[in-house]
């Protein structure tokens, strides 16, 4: 009987994880860093990148540094939202990978 209960709980958790994934994919985050615009969803999937023309006139190293910083900021915001959404849907239970 315990095996049946465990299987039922696993199926419920799988359903919750699927729900979390759908919500995170639908939640789009816009980030702007020194004119660079990045759009990412809360699953940390990058959707778009816009680099202003004036930045492209800068030195290559500066452009690369600014782009990496913009991606880092977008990734952090996505991770924070992912963590909060997972906590809401799981009742604060710790799920590996979320």
Chart the SSEs and their pairings:
Layout: H1 2-26, E1 28-33, E2 36-41, E3 46-50, H2 60-90
Antiparallel strand pairs: 1-2, 2-3
Helix pairs in contact: 1-2
Quick synopsis:
With 98 residues, the chain is an alpha+beta fold. The chain has a single domain (2-90), classed as Nucleoid-associated protein YbaB-like domain (Ybab, Chain: A). It has helices at residues 2-26, 60-90; strands at 28-33, 36-41, 46-50.
Descriptive report:
- The structure is a single chain.
- Helices cover 57% and strands 17% of the residues.
- It has one domain (2-90): Nucleoid-associated protein YbaB-like domain (Ybab, Chain: A, 2-Layer Sandwich), CATH 3.30.1310.
- The model has no long low-confidence stretch (mean pLDDT 85).
- A hairpin with a 4-residue loop joins strand 2 and strand 3.
- It is built from two helices and three strands; from the N terminus they run H-E-E-E-H.
């Amino acid at each position: 009987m315990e095996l049946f209960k465990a299987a039922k709980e696993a199926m419920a958790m799988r359903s919750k994880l699927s729900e979390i994934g759908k919500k995170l994919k639908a939640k789009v985050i816009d980030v702007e860093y020194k004119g660079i615009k990045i759009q990412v969803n809360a699953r940390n999937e990058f959707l778009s990148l816009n680099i202003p023309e004036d930045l492209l006139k800068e030195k290559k190293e500066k452009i690369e540094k600014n782009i990496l910083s913009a991606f880092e900021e977008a990734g952090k915001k996505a991770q924070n939202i992912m963590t909060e959404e997972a906590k809401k849907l799981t009742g604060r239970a710790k799920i590996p990978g979320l």
